Structures are given as C-alpha cells and as structure tokens.
C-alpha cells in the first residue's frame, strides 16, 4: 500500500513525524512518500499544488496530511490553493470527524459526560465552494459575496453516508444541524433530503437542531449526540467545539473521504499549523495518530486501527495530563504501546 505524506506547515511536520513512527510499528508494509507542499515551497517556487504532484498523489492509496497555513503567507492562499484544492480535486465529499471523551481525559466541563459522537461534515460544497467575489473593490460601495452552493447530488451523498454510519452505531441516532429558519433555500434542500433518505432507514431515529443551539447543547449536554450531519462551514465550527469539549484540539482526528474510492482519501488532524507553538516540540501528536487509525480503517485494516486507538486510550488513561511530555515523547510512548501487549490488552 502506498501512502502519500504531506507534512505541510508549522506543527504539521512535527505531528506527522510521530504519526509515521506509530504507523511504521503497526503497519510496516505501508510505504510513505513525502511531498513538500506548503509555505516553504510557495515562497521558493510560487507553487501550491502543481498538476504533476496532484497526478502522483492520485496514484496513492491514501494521503496523510499534517496542517497548512503560515503567518508569512497571506491568509487563504495555502488554505484554498492547497488544502481545499486537494479536498475538492479528490472529491472528499465526506469529512468525517469523530469526537470522543476518552477515560482519563478531563474535558473543560465540570461534569464528565459520556461523549462519543461523529460529525459527518459535507466536504466539497457550501460556503467553501468559492462562488462569489468582490464588486466595486476598494470603493465605499464594495460588496463581498460568498455563495453557499448546495447541490441535491452533494447533499444526498453525504446524508446517505451519515445514515449508513448511524445505522451501524449502537444508538442509531442522527441529527441534522443547519439553520433552516434563516438559510431557507439550502435548509429546505437539506431537510427534504434527510426526510427522503430517512424512509430507507426506519431503524435510525432522526432529529433536527439549529446550529446556534447546537453550540449550546454541545457544551451543556454533548452526550445527546450520536451522528451529526451538517454542511461544510457549520461542520468546521462544530468540530473545533466538539474537540474542545472532549479534551482539546490536540486529540481530534479527521478523514476526508471519497466514499466512491475513485480517489485517495486524506487523513489529517482537525487542528491547524498552530504557529503559536510551532518549533517548540510541545504539540500533541495524538490527533495525527488517531487520524492514522481512521486511515487504517479506511484501508481495510480495522484490527490495526483498533490497536492504534487502544494505544491512545491507554496513554490518555495513564499520562500525566499536567505534564504529558513533548511531541516526540508522546509519539515514542504511542509507538511503543502499539507494538506491546499493553496496547493490545486495552482494546479487549
Ligand atoms: N487542516 C488544516 O491544515 C488547518 C486546520 C485549521 C487551521 N489551519 C490553518 O492553521 C493556521 C493556524 O490556525 P488557528 O490558530 O486558527 O488554528 P490551530 O488549530 O492551528 O490552533 C488553534 C489553537 O490550538 C492549539 N493547537 C493546535 N493544534 C495543537 C496540538 N496538536 N497540540 C496542542 N495545541 C494545539 C494552537 O496552539 C492554538 O492555540 C491558519 O493558517 C489556519 O488557516 C489549517
Ligand atoms: C484551513 C481550513 C481550510 C480548514 C477548513 O475550514 O476546513 C480547517 O479549518 C479544518 O477544519 O480542516
Ligand atoms: Mg477547522
């Protein structure tokens, strides 16, 4: 199996390094090839994602990405020109973002609720589509539009994926999150599609919640959620919040999936390049390591994925959360755990 690795910017290379340590222990048959895309390449060559590199990436079974974004590059250049371009070109329509409160992790809430939810975020449309622009730029009459594009095709495929996931989880519960009271055009389409697909899944209990009130309930009662399906922007915001509630952004993994498997899917931590801590060796690599677990699941290696998760669970249950050790110390512990009996035992 061939894995393309895009470490990217800031803490991206730091956490990817640790994720690869774990991967090489658990799945030495996977061959990683590194691609130097990101701020440094843009500064030296002006390139973001050359066609030749995109063609090579397509030939891999999966992609592992660290993070992109750098204060030396104008905001949006790397995010749109590299990260979103990858997600769009490779048709990553399902952005899968689980959030689980692991035993031993103290979330910021006074109670320790049971949280085990997954956000199925639409990945190629919505306000991210890039439709819109600036009219009468640099005049007092300037107008900026950012059109949210929602196609029946795009909404249906992500809603179907969310129902299938809900159907395979113990609680079989799906919440559509939107803002149907204001975004009535897109809201109508999303609601109708959910209603139609729900007829094929009588086993899944469905409800609806406005996105603003979801931010309340994610904090006050996160246990109520099982699968959340939502649009690209709402999903972006809700998954940072869900990460915070379950112990921090350093633990939150994601998979950008082309469910049709026509293109390689891409796995990455939910967090960004964290310029505030880059180079200090203190970024938590756990999110990147858990992204490797999602990757292994996707590549049809669920037992290996469970070993990685079990190692993380063991580490989170036993680590000194005040002083967890630096990036490479955490990576070393996790790499040792995946190959040891301790890692395997916790999965039982
Ligand atoms: N997928 C991606 O590549 C991605 C995701 C989000 C943001 N970004 C980009 O990253 C840059 C910084 O964005 P931001 O500051 O809004 O978000 P961020 O996720 O990089 O950082 C937010 C906060 O979380 C902390 N943090 C992030 N990852 C951590 C980790 N592994 N361990 C410990 N702490 C961690 C940071 O120090 C910071 O205080 C921007 O250029 C943004 O566009 C990229
Ligand atoms: C950097 C940005 C394009 C990206 C997004 O908005 O999807 C990030 O915030 C994320 O959550 O992966
Ligand atoms: Mg985000």
TrEMBL record:
Site feature (Important for catalysis) residues: 128, 179
EC number: 1.1.1.85
Subunit structure, as described in the record: Homodimer.
Natural source organism: Actinomycetospora termitidis
Main location: cytoplasm
Protein's name according to its UniProt entry: 3-isopropylmalate dehydrogenase
Encoding gene, per UniProt annotation: leuB
Matches recorded under PROSITE patterns: IDH_IMDH
Residue numbers binding NAD(+): 272-284
Pfam families: Iso_dh (PF00180)
Stretches assigned to the Isopropylmalate dehydrogenase-like domain: 2-334
Binding-site residues for Mg(2+), renumbered to this chain: 212, 236, 240
